Every structure is written in structure tokens, then in C-alpha cells.
Fold each of these.
Amino acid sequence: MRCRLLRLWTTSLISAGLLVVAGVETRSFTIDYSDDTFVKDGEPFRYISGSIHYTRVPREHWKDRLMKIYAAGLNTIQTYVPWNFHQRRPFQSDFSGNLDFVSFLKLAQDVGLLVILRPGPYSDAGWDFGGLPAWLMESRYVNRNILLRSNNTDYMEAVARWFADLLPRVRPLLYNNGGPIISVQVENEYGSYFACDHNYLRTLHDIMRSYLGDEVILFTTDGASASYLRCGTLERLYATIDFGLTDSPEKVFAVQRQFQPHGPLVCSEFYVESSLDYWGYNHSQQSPQLAAKSLDLLLAYGANVNMYMFEGGTNFGYTSGSLPGAGTKVKFVTTTYDHDAPMSEAGDLREKYHMIREVVYKYVKRPVSPVPPDTLKLSYGQVRMKLIGDILEMLPSVSLPPVKSLYPLCMEDVHQYYGFILYRHISERSYASQELWLDGIRDRGYVIINKMMQGVLVRGEITHLNITLHRGDNLDILVENQGRIFYGNDLNKNQKGIVGNVTVGGLVLQHWTMFPLSLANASARLSSSISGLKAGSDTSGALLSPSLYIGTFVLPSTLSQPLDTYIDMRPWHKGQLFINGNNVGGYWPSLGPQVTLYVPLSFLKPFPASNTVLAFELESAPCPDPCTVRFVDRPFINKTVNVFD
Ligand SMILES: *[C@@H]1O[C@H](CO)[C@@H](O)[C@H](O)[C@H]1NC(C)=O
Ligand SMILES: *[C@@H]1O[C@H](CO)[C@@H](O)[C@H](O)[C@H]1NC(C)=O
Ligand SMILES: *[C@@H]1O[C@H](CO)[C@@H](O)[C@H](O)[C@H]1NC(C)=O
Ligand SMILES: *[C@@H]1O[C@H](CO)[C@@H](O)[C@H](O)[C@H]1NC(C)=O
Ligand SMILES: *[C@@H]1O[C@H](CO)[C@@H](O)[C@H](O)[C@H]1NC(C)=O
Ligand SMILES: *[C@@H]1O[C@H](CO)[C@@H](O)[C@H](O)[C@H]1NC(C)=O
């Protein structure tokens, strides 16, 4: 009975013209260990790949970028799946819009590209918390000593539930199932993490196999040093390495060979640029000539190569990560993740692209594809901004319901995982010129007493301030979460907001109210009340209370559709920018190196609709005159950073 039904079903599929089913069975992607090569459909195969993260490129531009990657001669792309972006709230997955990775991968396949998928669960990438969900830092986990990236029970339960959502969506996209995915990475540079827990890698391996089947190649990636591979590799996982420019492929790949005596040579991250950018550090660049030359050597040596990044893209919203710097300092990743990659943040082709393309076509048999043109950028000019009010006046319109507690709660414990939160304490006694001490500021705190700005606390740099408080005074501390640490041993210490107690004159302050701010949601409401606002008071360079400014503009009537643009935030100081409720990212042109923010066309509304710019300026606005922001048609992300600024 069962057989007959099956036969009937198969027959009807064939008669419906769905013969592709038969073709699927012939698709295979494997490793030939005797010939040291990948094998695709029975033929030796070498990939030349580029990294691009779908979360860092607006969906409307996915196709443009993928076509440009293809035109460079590449046959493969590599992307992470950032868990935290898909699960902003505990166990609630989102695969819609820019998170629709299935559509992204199908698009890649349509364009002619294969895919190397890196589902983590940890992904690093300069991304907030290395892609781990912020809710893992709630005290209910931290107090039980959750050890991230290990076979810890709490952590693995969260991973297992996430993978149960994610991996069934991946399976149909595997190469042998008719999709573009030729291999899947397990964890990411695990060998550089102190835990060195092979049981963790084994558990991840077992989970991935259970959802993805036995055929797909599972692999690991580690820095090219035996000390990393010792902790990062596992016998069942194909071992690959990553490294920057080299003039001796032989020397570097000797490290892979130590752990993977047979099989293809693979560099999973070949750094065609030097480093990512941090606020307060000079823009990092890499010579296109040297990048192309080193790539040539690797390809001549027969290696499979993934270039990191081929397009870096943008850390929109609150997605930039941070890294411990010198001493107790912390470095914060800029909003741009441009990375001086072959393709710019906005998809434009650099000299590096053309030089790499020339090298790649020496090694691929495909006819040379023409290069698509750069997307158009338009300078929309100046937009007049108006002061809506300072953060204290605006609190009722921008705060979610406040939470009360005896001692300050960290952001995660009030379920405000990103952005800004305001802590309020009403003084229960008087203190004359006493020291306010706050070691646990994560990461930047604006201290305000009775609406008067007192000063700024900075994580690892400024932890105290002399203040005078009278009984009944309002002490407000607006805290900015500038992004969680994405790499290293401090991964497990990633709570944000105020972590610990606040003391004044050595006494612990009690009774706090936490106001979680939701600015993107407020921006739509605020824009309807724009008429009748004044242009703001004269600031004369003084530190003002963080304030909200709003402006509107209409695109030219001659444009049928919006075009990409950049916003130049000089001479504004530091803050967060929203356009039509889209969180464009953080700006800090007074520091640099990034001065302009990339504004993709999808954030804009066509003529005759009105577009709204909302700036949450934390330090100092150029108002009332000129009190403008300016849209320009080219980026400026390489301002020289003065160490003495
Ligand atoms: C991982 O930890 C769980 C207990 O939390 C244990 O049952 C399991 O055996 C461990 N996995 C390995 C591979 O040791
Ligand atoms: C803060 O006050 C203390 C005494 O209460 C004083 O020693 C210190 O110099 C003051 N610091 C600043 C920065 O004014
Ligand atoms: C804050 O201070 C109270 C009272 O001294 C103490 O019980 C509590 O443990 C402190 N909290 C932290 C996180 O240090
Ligand atoms: C904020 O807006 C988003 C989408 O626009 C919505 O899903 C969310 O529920 C809103 N949050 C609040 C607190 O209003
Ligand atoms: C920044 O880069 C542009 C080209 O992208 C270049 O023309 C300019 O000289 C650079 N400026 C600085 C300060 O490096
Ligand atoms: C940035 O580069 C300039 C010019 O090369 C140099 O003077 C300055 O010290 C650098 N800044 C930092 C933070 O390294």
C-alpha cells in the first residue's frame, strides 16, 4: 500500500514537470583526501570566495552586491548567521526582512554563487557580543555562572533551541539537497578562546549532523598557529585556517597540514584589508597591490581562499561590538564596517576590486563577466533641525514603562538589551562636594542633577565625579551601551548599563528607577508634532544635556525613486541617528575616523512624502545656528584621529 502510494506520488511529480527531484541526487560536494581537493559533482573543485554579511547590507542591495562579487570572478560567498540579530528576545526567532537569510542564499544561487555558511553559534566579526544574544547576560544566567562557548548546560540549552529553529531552514539549502551551501563551519576560531572545551565542539558537531545529515562538509577555522588549532579542531571536523597577507603560502599552510595532513588547503579568512575601524583610532587601510599579489601566490599554490571582507557593509542600529584596548580602556567599533574591502560599504568598486578581479580571472575558466556600474548616490543638501527637547523633558514620549529597584539593575535585567537607558535616584540626604563613584559604567554615563549636566563617566577611563546633592534632588544618569565585547576572555562579562552600585561620599545610593529608552519607536510619533518647535538655544560649546533634534525633508520631484546618500554629521558631536524610524547608527564625527554615515535608499521615502531625521545628540549640537545636517554624495570615513583630542 505504502509503495503504491509513493509510486503514484513520484509519477505525479514527474508528470507535473518537477523532474528536478531526479537531478538533486546527482549533486554532491565532498573532499578527496588522496588528491587534496574538494570534489563537486565528481569533478575536482576549488573555491575562490568573498565574505559578505546579509545583516550588514540592506536587502534592496543584496542582488547588486552579489552580482558584483560574481563579476569579480568569485564562485562562492561566505556569511555568518548572527544569532543575536535573529533572536533579539529570548527564544523568539525572526527571519523576516533583512534577516531573511534563506532568500539571500537563494539569490546568491540564482546569481551563480555557492555558499559557505557560518552559523556559529558564536561569530566574532566585530559584531555586538560576537553574535551571541544579549539576553544570555541576564542575571538569571550570569548568577549561575554561565560559561559561554562551552558545554555549559544553560548555554547549550539556548544553543540547542536556536539551532532547532535555524538548522531545519538550512538543510534544504545544502548543495546535495539542491541548494548553494557547500560547507558549514562549526563555531568560529574556537582555539583562541580560553575554555578549550572539546566536548562543546563534539556537542555542536552532533547537533549539526542531526539536522543537516551526514553528507555536508563540517569544518573549523582558526588562526594560523598550532596553539590555536590545538583547541579549535576536532577529529570529525575538517580543519582550516585564516591569516593575512603573506609571501609564503608554504609556510602558513604547514600549520594546517600539521592538523589536517590530507585534503584541500583552505584559508577561510584571507585578510585583504588590515583591520576594522574603532572610534578614536585612525582608519585602517591595506594596499591593493599587496593584497592582489598575496592572493595570486595563494591561488598559484592551489589554495581555496575566502577573502574577508569582500564587502564589509554597515553596522546599522546598535550592532557594533567592542574590544578591550590598552589598560582598562575599551575600543568601540565604528558604525561603518567598510573595512577598506574591495567593495565599499555602499557597494562601490575600489582599485582593490579591479586588481583582485584581474588575478582571479587568471585562475577561473569562466568567461569574463562585465562589471555592473556603481549605484548612484545623491547629495540631498542641508536639512534644518529643530530642538524637540532634552532627554528629561522627553522621557514620557521615549521611555518604555520604568522599572524600580533598590539597587541599579543592568540593562539585560530590564530587558532593554541595546541602546540607551536612564537611571534615576532621588537623593535621600545631602552631600556637599562629594565624590560620586561608579566603577560599573557600561559604557558611557551622562550625569545630570536637577536637569543640569555635571559630566561624563567613561568605562575604564573616568569612574568618578565630584558632585553636590541636596535631599530631594534628582540624580539622573543616562547610560549608553556602546556595544558588547565581541572577542576574548571578557566575553562572559558583558552586562550593560550600570553594573554594580553607585556611591556618593562612600555611601551606596538606594532606590532607583530605570527608564528604558525606545527611540526608533518614538521617532514616528515625534515627527507628527514637529510644527511649532524652536531651533534650540545657544550652546556656546558647553556640554548640554542629551537632547533630541528633528528635521524633515522631501526628495527632489525629478527622482522617481530614492537614491543612496551619506549624511555628514559635522559639526554635531556624538549621538544616534534615525531616518524615518530606521536606526542609521551611531555618529561621532568630533572623534572620527568616521564622519559620514551611509544612508541606503531603502531608508528614504520618494517624493512627495516627507522624510524625518531624528538625532539624539548626547554632547553638543551646533544650534541654533546653523542647526543643520547635510546629505552628501561621497563618504568620509578616514578623518585623521588626533590622539590629543
Ligand atoms: C555536555 O554536557 C552535558 C550535560 O550538560 C552532558 O550530558 C554531555 O555528555 C556533554 N557532552 C559531551 C560531549 O561531553
Ligand atoms: C573631588 O573632591 C575631593 C575631596 O572631596 C578632592 O580631593 C578632589 O581633588 C576633587 N576632585 C576633583 C576632580 O575636583
Ligand atoms: C550594592 O550594595 C549593597 C549594600 O551594600 C550590597 O548588598 C550589594 O551586594 C551591592 N551590589 C553589588 C552588585 O555590589
Ligand atoms: C516598536 O516598533 C516595533 C516595530 O515598528 C514594534 O514591533 C514594537 O512592538 C514597538 N515597541 C514598542 C515598545 O512600542
Ligand atoms: C581619505 O580617502 C580618500 C579616498 O577615499 C582620499 O582622497 C583622502 O585623501 C583620504 N583622506 C585622508 C585624511 O586620509
Ligand atoms: C593618526 O595618524 C596621524 C597621522 O599619521 C598621527 O599623527 C596620529 O597620531 C594618529 N592617531 C592615532 C590615534 O594613532
Amino acid sequence: MSIDCALIAQNQPCWSVVMKAISPEIQRPHLGEPFLLTPGPLTTSYQVKAQMLRDWGSWDDDFRAMTQEMRDRLLALIGDGAEAFDCVPMQGSGSFSVEAMLGTFIPTSGKALVLANGAYGQRSAQTLQYLNRDHIILDKGDYLPPRGEMVAQILAQDPAITHVVAIHCETSSGILNPIEEISQATYAAGRALLIDSMSAFGALPLDANQIRYEALVSSANKCIEGVPGFGFVIACKSALEASKGNSHSLCLDLHAQWAHMNKTGQWRYTPPTHVVAAFLEALRAHEAEGGVAARGARYRQNRDVIVEGMRSLGFETLLKDRWLSPIIVTFFCPADPKFKFEQFYTLMKKKGFIIYPGKLTKLDSFRVGCIGQMDAHIMRQVVNAAQEALNEMDVTDGAPPVAALEERKRLLA
Ligand SMILES: *Cc1c(COP(=O)(O)O)cnc(C)c1O
């Protein structure tokens, strides 16, 4: 029997326990697959994957209990203030849940202020466009966070705005937006906050007692380390109650999903049963690791190792240290004309690491994710692989073009 099968047979409760028991050479949850240094889908534990080897009836008591446990566990992640909230899962990728949240909580008579500094902020605005919801965008480009003062100013000038839509970690650059000051500014002006915490929830705290919001959204395949297939919204019960009839969509009506689930224990339409089973295991592992604080600490360590290591090779990060999230980091491509991203990508993949292309509008860049079943030990191997790949391309220095640094300086000024 191979090691993997032996691990499944032993039915270990949590991959981190297994990790400690086996030698570093085989600390690869997927043995042979490359690590996904991407912000979801990401590298999951064997234990999580193993849960998908069994079928569940969507209406059956066992699966209903799993859905309930999942909702309870997710609610527990927002701390003591959770009683005023409920958790509504929704089939589809994360964007389906974002669309469900925007369409369910912003009434047709409402107006949103979207705080954008990258692709996901733009996607929320585009969603509102499709939904025919009035909105304006505060667009900060690729580098800069929307600050509380700016939000306060816009809200003071435009009394028609009912909701502020903020991205917690803008995954396209890796910038960590100042969600606390955004929340303060929003509620000081008597408006409601909707948070796309897709790539942050589970690793960065969003305690309901610390930060005020009407709803947040995340999905199965980000910091909880499940596999893709559904998202979830954690929302104030009062907002859920008030949202009846708002939704533009039958399938994406969170109020209807919530009401049906609370009445019957079932999802309205076919649930991704295997994905839920895997996600429940991921939530148990999240708790065993030490919850949000421990998950965030591991990711921060991953980030620190990769940033320090890549800087030692000459690479530069897009963002100043203050705005670097522990989720994903953007690096400029080196100035050396011998550096070709596609070749670098292929070399890294051969060494067991899938990196992520950049998503910046103006400058060449690539991204390295810090989330998933990886630790500092793995991240050091990533740096070694990058060093080897540069050597093989005959690139001696990872330093970016002067123009990139000047552009960054100009925009930050
Ligand atoms: C991943 C992500 C989403 C959702 O993307 P999908 O591809 O639809 O799962 C939305 N917002 C942010 C910030 C994300 O990182």
C-alpha cells in the first residue's frame, strides 16, 4: 500500500498531525502534484480530498447535519457577536456568492459606493452594472488602498448612497485594505458595509464585535483550504429578514436560500455534497490548527519567508511592506531581457511549484500565493527553486526595470 493510501486508511483526523509524524521529504500532501502557489483553488490536504470518496443524499439527515455543522462552524469564526448573524451557503464559485450578496442586500432603490483597487473591486462594480443597481466607484488603481477619510468625504457628499462595498484583500495585487477604518467611516455616516472577504476570511479576523458590517462573503477554496464548489455569506439576521424580494435572481436569492435552509435544513437546489464534506473536514483542521489566529500566523510566516527570499535574489514587491497581505504577493518581473515569464513559469512548475501570472494593468509582474497546505519549509523550497530557475535562464539579478520603480514612486507620491 502506498503511503497516501495508508494515511487514508488510518483516517487521521487532521493533516497537520500527519505532517508532524512523517519525514520532511514526504511532507507533500499530494505526493507528486505541484504545489499551487495560487489564491484558490489551492493545495489542500490529503485528508480533505479523502472526504470526497463517499456519496451523500442531499435530503438525508446525515447531510443536513453536515450543512448545519458547517454553518455553525463558519459563524463561530466571527466571534462572540455571531448571535446576530446567520450563515447562508450558495452553490457556485465565489463570484456567484458576491452577486447573490449584492443583489439580495442592495434594494433596487439603493445605491452603492464600490471601493476598487484592482480586478475584484472592478468585478463588483460590473456585477452592480448587470444588476441595474445604481453605484459609483472610488478607483484607487493597482497600488493604493481606499482610506476612511475618502469614504467619509464621498458619503457626506452623496446622501443617496445606502451601501459601501469593500474588498478585504484585493487578490489581484495582494493589497490588504484597511477594512476597520472603512467600516468606521461607513457607520459614522449611517450606511451599511458589504465586504468581499473572499481571499481573507479564515486567516484575517473579522470579529463582529470589532468590525461592523452587514454581510461578508467568502468561498470554500480560499483560506479555509477546501476545494471549489460553493461560497457563503455571513450576514446580519436583521438584514436577511429585510431583504425579502430584493433579489434579481431566482437561484442567487440569499433570502430564499436562507429561509428554505432554516425551515428544511436543505439547500434549495442540488448542493455540492462532496465539496461540503471536504469543506467540513477543512473546517475541523482549521480549528485543530488554532483557528483564525494560527491560520493567519502560518500564512504571515509563509509571506515573510517568500518576500525575504525573493528580495535576496533582487526581486522587488509591488507594494510597500505595510500593505502586503499574508495571502498573495506581487513581484515585478526582472529587468534582465533574458527573463521570460513563460519560461520561468515552466521551470518553476518542473520543480513542483505553480506560480500565478500578474494582473497589473501597466507593469509586468507575477504573483506568489501564501495560502494552502504549505509552511515556511515549503516556502524556502520555493525560493531555492526561483534561484535555480534564474540560474537556468542565465539571469543574475531579479531587480525590476528602473521604469517600474519610478512608476511605483510616482503613484505612491
Ligand atoms: C477568489 C476571489 C473572488 C471569487 O472568484 P471566483 O473565481 O468566482 O471564485 C472574489 N473576490 C476576491 C477578492 C477573490 O480573491
